[in-house]
Amino acid sequence: MSPAEEAAETLRGFGIDASAGELESRSPIDGQLIGALKMGDAGKACTNAAKAFLDWRLVPDPGVANSFGCSARSSGPRRSRLPAS
Question: What radius of gyration, in Å, describes the C-alpha atoms of the chain?
Fold first, then answer.
């Protein structure tokens, strides 16, 4: 299997269709075509990334939650209970 064929197979394994498009990639070893991809929309990608970040930043750090739980457990029953009102 040539390096270009191996790279193309790897792309297929990730579900990337590299069979048609305006941006060609060639192996630097033998010049064989690895694949051709369609150009994406950079503005749309940035908008989607910004929206995803707004959701992601609300997810608490698992290390902080874990250290709080360990602290509450190690301080005994008094500090691990909520105060009665």
Answer: 25
5-9 LR contacts (CB < 8 Å, sep 24+): 5/32, 7/34, 7/35, 8/34, 8/35
Beta-bridge partner residues of 25: 35
pTM of whole model > 0.85? no
Tell me which residue has tokens 């930043």: 57
Determine contact, residues 2/19, Cβ cutoff 8 Å.
no
SS3 23: strand
The per-residue pLDDT for range 37-64, each reduced to its tens digit, is: 888 899 999 999 999 999 999 988 877 6
